Amino acid sequence: MRVAFDYLIFSMQQYGGISRYFHELGAHLSSFEDVELSWPVFAHGNSYLRESSNGHYVSIAPDTRIKRGVRKLANATMTKAWLAAHPQDIIHETFYRTTPWPGRHRTVVTVHDMIVEKHPEENPNAVADAAIKRAAVMRADHVICISENTKKDLLELVDVAPSHISVIPHGWRRFPEAAATNLPANIVKPFLLYVGARSTYKNWKNFIAAYAQSSLPADFQIVCFGGGEFTPEEMATLAKYKLTEIQVTQAGGGDAILGTLYQNAALFVYPSLYEGFGMPLLEAMAAGCPVACGDVSSLPEVAGAAAEYFDPMSSESIAAAIQRVVSSKAHAEELVRQGEQRLPMFSWERCAEQTRDVYRKLAG
């Protein structure tokens, strides 16, 4: 069974949840004898592909540092030529396209979330992006959703048959063991960890308000991993609450630093108002880090009993949940124990097996 992932997400992302999903899925699909997986990605800047052993992947050219628009055009042109020479049974599109790839294959699309539809204020191109996603879903032979909540939202917003949708959750992986001595130098006390972008629906400002209006700053820093440098607006938020860049600090880098942070944080706090899945929850659990998150969207589906829940719209609720965990070693340890019990429900091996089942049914 010949299966190809297209180039799109690897051309778009250096790091990111979607490219990580396809990278992990592809690595495990490649172990199946009945799957001949190709990755016709001819120009990319994706770190997961650069760090991989090319022995696991077919048709990946060395990455080129060219502008995204030129990269996209080059990839599209070369992919069409490659498909003409290498017909496929299945193409699993890595992001949303309005038009299909040429050929007599079947098409699979993964829907990761409905953020652009639920939170259009985040994206000036929300209407156009939602239309492209809708077109991709409607023409796909099968759709994979990464959570039951994402499936529910998709069915509410797009007229697609439930029988054309499979729910296949993400997996997780453990980061290498890391010592506290490997922490960035700007971490000088116990810390609460925040991971990822700080856009509106991620609810970073309410997390900062919860922290500032409690007794937490006396004993804990907030470390924000990823998301780039603080913007002027974010600096204004810190100034509003008279917080210093030591109390709320940043860390960047790759998985080695992220793993070190998970393993040494007092608590991972995930204040997001909406997620399609919530992979950082599993990453934190796998690192032995207790978790606190909102009781919203897909997060309870992923975390189960292994999280301290709060109302993400209430800074008081967020602060109270954090205090319940950091003030009780026994409670924090119980959350870690629950996390270890939760993890076997999710794996990249299972994700790959269920995805292969989708391919098999389509390929006949």
From TrEMBL:
<dbReference type="GO" id="GO:0016757">
    <property type="term" value="F:glycosyltransferase activity"/>
</dbReference>
<protein>
    <submittedName>
        <fullName>Mannosyltransferase</fullName>
    </submittedName>
</protein>
<dbReference type="Pfam" id="PF13439">
    <property type="entry name" value="Glyco_transf_4"/>
</dbReference>
<dbReference type="InterPro" id="IPR001296">
    <property type="entry name" value="Glyco_trans_1"/>
</dbReference>
<keyword id="KW-0328">Glycosyltransferase</keyword>
<dbReference type="Pfam" id="PF00534">
    <property type="entry name" value="Glycos_transf_1"/>
</dbReference>
<keyword id="KW-0808">Transferase</keyword>
<dbReference type="GO" id="GO:0009103">
    <property type="term" value="P:lipopolysaccharide biosynthetic process"/>
</dbReference>
<dbReference type="InterPro" id="IPR028098">
    <property type="entry name" value="Glyco_trans_4-like_N"/>
</dbReference>
